[in-house]
Amino acid sequence: MQVFTLAVACLLFFVPHACRTQNLVANGSFEEIDSCPQYPALLGYQPGAQPIGWFSAWHTPDYFNACVDTVSSVPLNYFSYQIAEEGDAYSGFAAFLSDDLRELIASELIEPLQVGQTYYCSFWVSAAAGGFLFLSAATDNVGLLFTMNVNPWIYTQWNPDFELRNFAQVRSEEVISDTVGWTLVSGSFVADSAYRFVVVGNQFNNTNTEVELFGTGDPNTAYVFVDNICVSTSPLGCPLATGQVSNHKQPFFVGPNPCSEQLTVELLEPLRRLRVMDVTGRQILEREIVSQNKVSIDLTGQPNGVYVIQLEGLGVRHSERFVVQH
Q1: Whole-model pTM?
Q2: What is the full DSSP assignment across 9-53?
Q3: Average pLDDT value over all residues in the chain
Q4: Which of 34, 90, 124, 133 is 20 to 30 A distant from 243 in Cα terms?
Q5: Cα(58)–Cα(99) distance, integer angstroms
Q6: 188: pLDDT confidence band, cut at 50, 70 and 90?
Q7: pLDDT digits 0-9 by tens, 278-307
Q8: In what order do the strands lie in the sheet with 222-232?
């Protein structure tokens, strides 16, 4: 197995659509649903609260969509505040719990893998922070496990435990602790069986999993969001599947933070577009970046609170939170 370096900052490499090949994961961004989830099917991948093509492989993972204004909404939900990496939806699950418990999601691939074929994979992860559970733990080993069969785990009946194998074809070998942006995990492997399913989550037991606290909280609970899962036979089919990115510092500074009226963005490298969103995910500003040195943003009249600034360049996307306080 070959695993590529994590982009521990929020990075996104755009590949022209003409160069992309088929993603073997149907509905990998979780956008497609039969209907907007309704009460009581809100959390736990219950019937009526599952993205099309996905199911629980173990315990009660969760589905989040901006179409609802409840504990399972986007960006603000029961577990944290997180804008979707792309679109309006993502999934989430406990990647670390006591007694080696896990929450896992699974989907049948569009076609079985071919033995001897190299596959390129990627997915995005964000650590959940705060929320009603006061989450403050991050973990490694979130990954993709390819299997021949997976039995759906149904919360209303007894189900056997999913066997943790301390193995995944592609996984995050570093602790993912970014709670603002999304971290891209990518890698490649050669299929040794005609695998039909992909299982997403932490396949390693607690002894073989590293946990880091980024605040005061429970070290026995680490929860993550995942989005845009991709599996392809082409190195151009999934973002950064063949790229190599080292630990990357934010290419800009924002200040003052908190700010009252004017926010200044100092650029450390060329960026092209700027967006500002409020805590509900509503976009309040978007502009092209002309200057390559500094950008000033007038926030006069905006309510006090937490905002997210997002900057994009050629193949990259970065996010940062700031506070408006008049």
Answers
A1: 0.71
A2: S-------GGG----SSTTTTS---SS---TT--SSS-TTSS-TT
A3: 85
A4: 90
A5: 14
A6: confident
A7: 766 678 889 888 777 888 899 998 988 878
A8: 2-3, 183-190, 118-127, 222-232, 89-96, 62-65
